[in-house]
Design goal:
Blueprint: H1 14-27, H2 34-39, H3 43-57
Helix pairs in contact: 1-3
Length: 65
């Protein structure tokens, strides 16, 4: 069984740190969970996944029926 490494903030590239900082700012937290740390092994996947999740979490409104 293979194990995906977790990329800690201190070990992250600038590109990954930028996404981590956006995650923390958006969520109002000071930590990154392991889901994001595992995705950080592929920075483009991390960025794409975060942007998708972030858009779902954004404020919005539904039209009345």
């Amino acid at each position: 069984m293979s194990i995906t490494p977790l990329i800690e903030y201190e070990d992250a590239t600038e590109e990954v740190r930028s996404v981590y900082e956006d995650i923390m700012a958006t969520r109002g937290s000071n930590w990154i969970n392991n889901f994001w740390k595992a995705l950080a092994t592929q920075p483009e996947l991390l960025k794409r996944t975060w942007n998708g999740v972030k858009s779902v979490m954004a404020d919005g409104a539904l039209d009345s029926l």
